[in-house]
Write a structure and sequence with these properties.
Layout: E1 2-6, H1 9-20, E2 28-33, H2 39-49, E3 64-68, E4 73-78, E5 101-105, E6 118-125, E7 132-139, H3 143-152
Parallel strand pairs: 2-5, 2-6, 4-5
Antiparallel strand pairs: 1-7, 3-4, 6-7
Helix pairs in contact: 1-2
């Protein structure tokens, strides 16, 4: 497991661009962390790096937003509202790990749908406002992404 330090929003989005350089259909990225920890900021940089021109925002009320990237769709979930109900039987499995890249904020509320191959990013705030510590953990086939990221950073 590798930990990345970003000092501001721009650095968080630059890190997201580095992760996006390894993105391909089927990739699932679980984004864990408290409210305001940088999950959506990461997703904005990630989507922009893949050619998304639309405004990327947390899909808190929709639970999922779809963005059209250059080569494949990006499915962006905010599972916070699934805390009580879970994600079973809501059709989300039709998107997770399929023809696009899936980013899931609050993945603990969709754990029953998380594939065995995924990249987990855990965001923690630093002592200063924009400082973030991002733990990177590749599971299964995503271990290679973690290894490649460690070489870049």
């Amino acid at each position: 497991m590798k930990e990345i330090l970003t000092n501001n929003t721009s650095e968080t989005q630059t890190f997201a661009q580095q992760v996006a350089s390894f993105a391909k259909p089927g990739l699932v990225i679980a984004l864990a962390g408290d409210l305001g920890a940088g999950k959506t900021t990461f997703t904005q940089g990630f989507a922009r790096a893949l050619g998304v021109n639309a405004r990327v925002k947390s899909p808190t009320f929709n639970i999922m937003n779809t963005y059209v990237a250059n080569d494949f769709p990006i499915y962006h979930f905010d599972a916070y509202r699934l805390e009580e109900t879970g994600a079973q039987d809501q059709g989300f499995e039709d998107y997770v790990g399929t023809d696009g890249v899936t980013l899931i904020e609050w993945p603990q509320y969709m754990k029953d749908l998380l594939p065995k191959d995924r990249l987990e990013l855990n965001f923690k705030r630093g002592a200063q406002d924009d400082v973030r510590f991002i733990q990177v953990h590749g599971i299964g086939l995503a271990e290679s992404i973690e290894e490649k990221l460690c070489l870049l950073i």
